[in-house]
Specification:
Length: about 675
């Protein structure tokens, strides 16, 4: 029996679990469509009731009323929720804290006592729960998420004072008047202001307590709002025909001003004349330089002007005429192909824009902007031009201040690289053109931006010696930027015409690290995705084989070699003249190489001195006495050690036969590198 009872219990639990699983798998039958979600939106309502429980919107000064807030949340009433009330500008709350707790029906109340005649808004707010249920799907279980949300409610109301009979006073307003601008014959000057005035009456007389009057306007601004009546019931304010965003009102009428209190209104139409004086200014050209049509670069710009009134206020919806007054050739504006006047209209900020399109001739372009209503008011653009083209491959140069630095043995030796770049006609590229740099060793600044230096376009970066160091001491540096290929302008129209002009196509730019003239895997490359067959090359403008595009745009590039020279000398070839004879001046040259591979020169500015092992063999002047700049060239296998020449003179010694000659003398060649590192090597005179 005991065993049977336990078995029944476990069977019951297993069946229960199965039922639950079955319900989860058949969610449509167990309540809700598979994959659906549900929630109900919480809310809050606010009503105003009088002592009889009736809903009201009009109140009397000094009488108590009740604000009733009803809050709901998912599942029904929001109970025990704090509600925060505000009274508006014309009443007070009791208690003054303005907070109350909802009851089991989600209702919270607050006493409201109006103090001043006029119209205002009471509000209530609370935070309640929102439950979102997502039904199960074939792959996910049902979920329920609870979040808190803020809910608000509001109630507009008006307040009146009691008359002598104890009944609510009847509030009326006189006609709203303006000192000027209330009729078309007395229009306000554009951008100016005028005084507004009206009188508030309570049962036909000035109210004993100040009345609050709110102002609204369809154009312009009124200040103050609300305004309060004085002891005679008079309310004063000022109307401005300038909007908050600075734009001007103008028209017949330009807008309507409305005064409101205790549910009654009074209006006046405002007439504002169009400005007759002012200015128009040139704001900007973006970009400041464009390029010839077909040059492969930006050939369109946007010019912006601004129209202002005589008070300096922006003129919105103002007609501005735009004309092309300086055209180097083929420039159009407004729409492509147009050269006639363009009738523009300013936006809310007083701005008017016009597009400008380049033609086939470079030069300065000028657009004139004129007030449509007054041709004497105008301005012209400045600093905007059409350039002949973007950077061109044949117009890029890369140079160094020092090509053979003391960089093999020490870190931090530097040299400066400078790119000079222009377009097809030799004109400077725009300031700020970015040029990129990469190197196969050491460290180099990644970019520089062009600027005019002594009126010429260029920019520079610095290179510093450090690891990694190529084993042959030759560091490849590639400078590159976007531009165009070289082409022959067959039809002489200053632009590239595909099918007519002859294009000098070139493949991807790459850094030829081993200087073998062929792109090798692992070398830096700027791929354009081209697959047109074409020749490859190395040297100063490396081009990757069979990656041409047939199109004008390209990566303009230049490569240079920096030599990381050793500060330890190695003398290799020594070439003397014919055999030395007594008292005969003879000369020879020797080559200094700075690396273990005996191919590179020592660092530039390395000084040299020589001593002879033979007394009477005089060492003459060494020419040059220091290592000069040595350019790396394009052959990594070339021996480019620096060559120096010296003249040796043998002398006759008294009583010595034969005379002293320099043949066979051992010369010690001493060097001092720029860092101060000293070295020496010996050589025997042939």
């Amino acid at each position: 029996m005991k065993f049977r009872a336990l078995l029944d219990r476990y069977l019951h639990l297993a069946i229960g679990g199965l039922a639950a699983a079955f319900c989860a798998m058949t969610i449509v039958a167990c309540g809700g469509a598979a994959g659906s979600s549900s929630s109900n939106t919480p809310g809050l309502t606010l009503t105003l009731i009088n002592a009889s429980g009736a809903t009201v919107t009009n109140m009397v000064v000094g009488t108590s009323y009740t604000l009733v807030a009803t809050a709901s949340q998912t599942g029904g009433a929001a109970t025990n929720v704090v509600v925060t009330f505000t009274s508006g500008s014309l009443a007070t709350l009791t208690p003054s804290t303005g907070t109350a707790l909802t009851n089991s029906s989600g209702v919270a109340t607050m006493v409201l006592v109006p103090t001043t005649a006029g119209a205002s808004t009471a509000t209530a707010s609370a935070t309640v729960n929102k439950i979102t249920t997502t039904a199960a799907t074939s792959t996910t279980a049902a979920t329920t998420t609870t979040t808190t949300v803020a809910v608000t409610g509001s109630s507009n109301y008006s307040v009146a004072t009691l008359g002598a009979s104890g009944t609510p006073a009847v509030v009326t307003l006189s006609a709203l008047t303006a000192t000027s601008g209330s009729t078309s014959g007395t229009s306000l000057t554009s951008g100016s202001s005028t005084a507004l005035s009206l009188t508030v009456y309570s049962n036909g007389v000035a109210p004993t307590t100040p009345a609050s009057v709110a102002f609204t306007t369809t154009c312009g601004q009124v200040s103050p709002t609300p305004a309060t009546s004085n002891g005679s019931g008079v309310v004063s304010a000022t109307y401005s025909s300038v909007n908050a965003d600075g734009s001007l009102c103008q028209g017949s009428p330009a807008g309507t001003v409305t005064a409101t209190t205790s549910g009654v209104t009074s209006q006046v139409s405002m007439y504002v004349s169009a400005p007759t004086t002012g200015s128009v200014t040139f704001i900007s050209a973006s970009p400041t330089q464009i390029y010839l049509t077909g040059a492969g670069a930006t050939s369109q710009a946007t010019l912006t002007f601004k129209a202002l009134s005589n008070t300096g206020t922006a003129l919105a919806n103002w007609p501005v005429d735009l004309t092309l007054t300086s055209n180097p050739g083929g420039v159009t504006f407004g729409t492509q192909g147009n050269t006639a006047l363009v009738a523009g209209t300013t936006n809310a900020s007083g701005l008017v824009t016009v597009s400008v399109f380049a033609g086939g001739t470079p030069g300065a372009v000028t657009i004139q902007a004129t007030w449509n209503a007054n041709s004497a008011i105008y301005t012209t653009s400045s600093g905007f031009s059409v350039a002949s083209g973007p950077p061109r491959q044949s117009a890029m140069s890369l140079s160094m201040t020092n090509p053979n630095i003391e960089g093999w043995n020490i870190d931090g030796s530097t040299t400066q690289l400078t790119v000079r770049i222009s377009d097809a006609n030799g004109n400077a590229v725009p300031n700020g053109t970015v040029i990129n740099f990469v190197s196969s060793g050491g460290q180099i600044n990644s970019t520089c931006t062009t600027a005019l230096v002594a009126t010429f376009s260029q920019c520079s970066v610095n290179f510093s010696s450090q690891n990694p160091r190529p084993t042959n001491g030759r560091v490849a540096v590639l400078a590159y930027l976007e531009g165009v290929k070289n082409y022959t302008d067959t039809n002489a129209n200053n632009q590239y015409d595909s099918g007519t002009d002859t294009l000098s196509d070139q493949g991807d730019a790459y850094r030829d690290d081993n200087e073998d003239g062929v792109y090798n895997s692992g070398e830096f490359v700027v791929s354009k995705g081209g697959a047109v067959a074409c020749a490859g090359a190395g040297g100063t403008t490396p081009k990757r084989l069979n990656t041409c595009t047939g199109l004008l745009p390209t990566t303009v590039r230049a490569q240079a070699i920096i030599l990381l020279s050793s500060n330890l000398p190695l003398v290799t070839a020594v070439a003397g003249q014919a055999s030395f004879t007594a008292v005969t001046a003879r000369g020879f040259s020797f080559t200094l190489n700075g690396t273990v591979r005996t191919l590179l020169p020592m660092p530039s500015s390395t000084s040299i001195s020589i001593t002879s092992s033979v007394t009477g063999c005089t060492v003459g002047t060494i020419s040059p006495s220091a290592v000069q700049y040595v350019v790396g060239g394009t052959d990594p296998a070339a021996n480019i050690g620096s060559v120096h020449t010296v003249t040796l003179t043998g002398t006759a010694a008294a009583g010595v036969t034969p005379a002293v000659t320099c043949n066979g003398a051992v010369l010690t060649i001493n060097t001092t590198a720029p860092s101060g590192q000293q070295g020496s090597a010996t050589v025997t005179v042939p």
